[in-house]
Amino acid sequence: MWQTAPPFSELLAGCQRSAVHLEMRDHYDDPDEAPRVEAWKSGYRPDPDDRSTWWRPWLDMVAETVARGVEIRRARIVSEPVSEYTRYLYDGTFTNVAAGEQIRWLPRRQASDLALPGNDFWVFDDRLVRFGYFSGEGAYLGDDVTDEPAVAKLCVDAFEGVWDRATPHEEYRV
User: Which superkingdom, per the lineage (predicted)?
Assistant: First the structure.
Protein backbone atom coordinates (compact mmCIF):
# COMPACT_ATOMS: atom_id res chain seq x y z
CA MET A 1 0.00 0.00 0.00
CA TRP A 2 1.32 3.46 -0.96
CA GLN A 3 0.83 6.40 1.34
CA THR A 4 2.36 9.74 2.21
CA ALA A 5 5.40 9.18 4.38
CA PRO A 6 5.27 10.02 8.08
CA PRO A 7 8.08 12.24 9.42
CA PHE A 8 11.47 10.67 8.84
CA SER A 9 12.23 10.70 12.58
CA GLU A 10 9.22 8.39 13.12
CA LEU A 11 10.42 5.98 10.43
CA LEU A 12 13.88 5.79 11.95
CA ALA A 13 12.50 5.51 15.49
CA GLY A 14 10.42 2.52 14.44
CA CYS A 15 13.35 0.80 12.79
CA GLN A 16 14.70 -2.23 14.65
CA ARG A 17 17.53 -3.75 12.55
CA SER A 18 18.58 -1.80 9.48
CA ALA A 19 18.05 1.37 7.49
CA VAL A 20 19.64 1.67 4.06
CA HIS A 21 19.65 4.70 1.79
CA LEU A 22 20.48 4.94 -1.90
CA GLU A 23 21.25 8.39 -3.32
CA MET A 24 21.48 8.70 -7.09
CA ARG A 25 21.55 12.44 -7.78
CA ASP A 26 24.57 14.68 -8.31
CA HIS A 27 22.86 17.68 -6.72
CA TYR A 28 20.18 18.29 -4.12
CA ASP A 29 18.73 21.75 -3.59
CA ASP A 30 17.64 21.74 0.04
CA PRO A 31 16.90 25.25 1.37
CA ASP A 32 17.82 24.13 4.90
CA GLU A 33 21.20 22.97 3.63
CA ALA A 34 21.91 26.05 1.49
CA PRO A 35 23.72 28.00 4.26
CA ARG A 36 26.06 25.03 4.88
CA VAL A 37 26.76 24.68 1.15
CA GLU A 38 27.52 28.41 0.84
CA ALA A 39 29.81 28.27 3.88
CA TRP A 40 31.62 25.29 2.35
CA LYS A 41 32.05 27.20 -0.94
CA SER A 42 33.65 30.00 1.11
CA GLY A 43 36.16 27.56 2.60
CA TYR A 44 34.47 26.52 5.84
CA ARG A 45 34.92 22.89 6.88
CA PRO A 46 33.38 21.21 9.95
CA ASP A 47 35.88 20.81 12.76
CA PRO A 48 36.47 17.08 13.37
CA ASP A 49 37.10 17.84 17.05
CA ASP A 50 34.01 20.01 17.59
CA ARG A 51 30.83 18.00 17.10
CA SER A 52 28.73 21.05 17.97
CA THR A 53 29.65 22.42 14.52
CA TRP A 54 28.20 19.37 12.76
CA TRP A 55 24.80 18.93 11.13
CA ARG A 56 22.17 18.76 13.83
CA PRO A 57 19.71 17.17 14.62
CA TRP A 58 20.38 14.56 11.91
CA LEU A 59 23.65 13.27 13.34
CA ASP A 60 22.20 13.01 16.85
CA MET A 61 19.32 10.94 15.48
CA VAL A 62 21.77 8.68 13.62
CA ALA A 63 23.96 8.20 16.70
CA GLU A 64 20.94 7.38 18.87
CA THR A 65 19.61 4.90 16.29
CA VAL A 66 22.96 3.14 15.89
CA ALA A 67 23.39 3.04 19.67
CA ARG A 68 20.19 0.98 19.96
CA GLY A 69 21.57 -1.57 17.48
CA VAL A 70 20.27 -0.41 14.11
CA GLU A 71 22.75 -0.59 11.22
CA ILE A 72 22.57 2.47 8.97
CA ARG A 73 24.16 2.24 5.52
CA ARG A 74 24.17 4.84 2.76
CA ALA A 75 25.37 4.36 -0.81
CA ARG A 76 25.87 7.19 -3.26
CA ILE A 77 25.98 6.72 -7.03
CA VAL A 78 27.96 9.66 -8.40
CA SER A 79 29.05 10.97 -11.77
CA GLU A 80 32.78 11.40 -12.25
CA PRO A 81 34.34 13.84 -12.31
CA VAL A 82 32.13 14.67 -9.35
CA SER A 83 29.91 17.74 -9.13
CA GLU A 84 30.68 20.61 -6.78
CA TYR A 85 27.79 19.46 -4.60
CA THR A 86 29.22 15.93 -4.41
CA ARG A 87 32.54 17.43 -3.26
CA TYR A 88 30.62 19.27 -0.56
CA LEU A 89 28.97 16.00 0.54
CA TYR A 90 32.29 14.18 0.46
CA ASP A 91 34.01 16.78 2.64
CA GLY A 92 31.31 16.47 5.32
CA THR A 93 30.78 12.70 5.20
CA PHE A 94 33.26 12.10 8.01
CA THR A 95 30.58 13.46 10.36
CA ASN A 96 28.06 10.85 9.18
CA VAL A 97 30.66 8.12 9.66
CA ALA A 98 31.51 9.42 13.14
CA ALA A 99 27.80 9.31 14.03
CA GLY A 100 27.69 5.63 13.01
CA GLU A 101 26.63 5.55 9.36
CA GLN A 102 28.49 3.32 6.95
CA ILE A 103 28.88 5.09 3.61
CA ARG A 104 30.09 3.94 0.21
CA TRP A 105 30.49 5.63 -3.16
CA LEU A 106 29.91 4.09 -6.59
CA PRO A 107 30.92 5.83 -9.82
CA ARG A 108 27.87 5.95 -12.10
CA ARG A 109 29.71 4.12 -14.91
CA GLN A 110 30.04 1.10 -12.63
CA ALA A 111 26.26 1.00 -12.09
CA SER A 112 25.20 0.70 -15.73
CA ASP A 113 24.22 -2.96 -15.52
CA LEU A 114 22.36 -2.69 -12.20
CA ALA A 115 18.56 -2.58 -12.04
CA LEU A 116 17.77 0.56 -10.04
CA PRO A 117 14.46 2.17 -9.03
CA GLY A 118 13.81 5.56 -10.60
CA ASN A 119 14.09 7.50 -7.33
CA ASP A 120 16.26 7.74 -4.24
CA PHE A 121 14.98 5.62 -1.40
CA TRP A 122 15.34 4.43 2.16
CA VAL A 123 14.47 0.87 3.19
CA PHE A 124 13.70 0.20 6.86
CA ASP A 125 14.11 -3.35 8.20
CA ASP A 126 14.02 -4.74 4.62
CA ARG A 127 10.27 -4.15 4.44
CA LEU A 128 9.24 -0.49 4.41
CA VAL A 129 10.40 1.73 1.53
CA ARG A 130 10.39 5.52 1.50
CA PHE A 131 10.90 7.06 -1.93
CA GLY A 132 12.02 10.69 -2.14
CA TYR A 133 11.04 12.79 -5.15
CA PHE A 134 13.07 15.70 -6.53
CA SER A 135 12.74 18.17 -9.38
CA GLY A 136 15.26 18.24 -12.20
CA GLU A 137 17.04 21.04 -10.32
CA GLY A 138 17.17 18.96 -7.13
CA ALA A 139 14.36 20.59 -5.15
CA TYR A 140 12.61 18.20 -2.78
CA LEU A 141 9.04 17.50 -3.95
CA GLY A 142 7.82 15.00 -1.38
CA ASP A 143 7.86 11.33 -0.59
CA ASP A 144 5.78 8.17 -0.35
CA VAL A 145 6.12 4.97 1.63
CA THR A 146 5.09 1.46 0.76
CA ASP A 147 5.35 -1.93 2.37
CA GLU A 148 4.62 -3.84 -0.84
CA PRO A 149 6.93 -6.88 -0.70
CA ALA A 150 7.91 -6.73 -4.41
CA VAL A 151 8.91 -3.06 -4.11
CA ALA A 152 10.89 -3.71 -0.93
CA LYS A 153 12.71 -6.61 -2.61
CA LEU A 154 13.51 -4.49 -5.67
CA CYS A 155 14.99 -1.77 -3.48
CA VAL A 156 16.88 -4.12 -1.16
CA ASP A 157 18.37 -5.96 -4.14
CA ALA A 158 19.30 -2.67 -5.85
CA PHE A 159 20.92 -1.32 -2.71
CA GLU A 160 22.91 -4.51 -2.09
CA GLY A 161 24.07 -4.55 -5.72
CA VAL A 162 25.38 -1.01 -5.35
CA TRP A 163 26.83 -1.67 -1.89
CA ASP A 164 28.79 -4.70 -3.09
CA ARG A 165 30.50 -2.68 -5.84
CA ALA A 166 30.89 0.63 -4.05
CA THR A 167 34.03 1.94 -2.37
CA PRO A 168 33.97 2.62 1.38
CA HIS A 169 34.17 6.32 2.19
CA GLU A 170 37.59 5.93 3.80
CA GLU A 171 39.00 4.64 0.49
CA TYR A 172 37.09 6.75 -2.04
CA ARG A 173 38.76 9.86 -3.47
CA VAL A 174 37.03 12.69 -5.33
Answer: Bacteria
Residue 119 is which amino acid? N
Q: How far is CA 31 from CA 38, 61, 92, 145, in A?
A: 11, 20, 17, 23
Q: What is the mean pLDDT of the chain?
A: 95
pLDDT exceeds cutoff 80 at 84: yes
> How many residues would you count in the chain?
174
**Interval 104-146: pLDDT, tens:** 999 999 999 999 999 999 999 999 999 999 999 999 999 999 9
DSSP, collapsed to helix, strand or coil, labels residue 91 as: helix
Count the alpha carbons within 13 Å of 81 in the hemisphere toward its beta carbon. Answer: 1
Distances (CA, A) of 152 to 62, 90, 104, 156, 162: 22, 28, 21, 6, 15
Q: How far apart are CA 141 and CA 167, in angstroms?
A: 29
Please report, for residues 24, 28, 37, 73, 140, the alpha-carbon distance to residue 135 in angstroms, rounded to integers and kept in the order given.
13, 9, 19, 25, 7
